Amino acid sequence: xxxxxxxxxxxxxxxxxxxxxxxxxxxxxxxxxxxxxxxxxxxxxxxxxxxxxxxxxxxxxxxxxxxxxxxxxxxxxxxxxxxxxxxxxxxxxxxxxxxxxxxxxxxxxxxxxxxxxxxx
Length: 120
Ligand SMILES: [Zn+2]
What we know:
Layout: H1 4-35, H2 44-51, E1 67-68, E2 80-82, E3 86-89, E4 94-97, H3 98-106, H4 110-118
Bound molecules: zinc ion (ZN).
């Protein structure tokens, strides 16, 4: 049993880590668009590559036994099932494929997310 003061300290550290991860994704996004100027042409091949991109490497939280903490709600225990190219949260009752994970986490539109994954 963790004493209350330690638990508070732990919660503070965890929220610090979470906000640093959020900052990190923002910087990654900015860096990506510096390196890849925007235009709207994507091919069917790029969409296929993006759709089939392994989702696990895109997730912000560690994955154990195909489960991870959901990125869409405050999740203390892993509620998100991790499949090869998509995830499903049992609490949110919602699924995301690799493209929609990138859209959600990096705030990209569909074309931007496809290009991000197809050139990764
Ligand atoms: Zn969720």
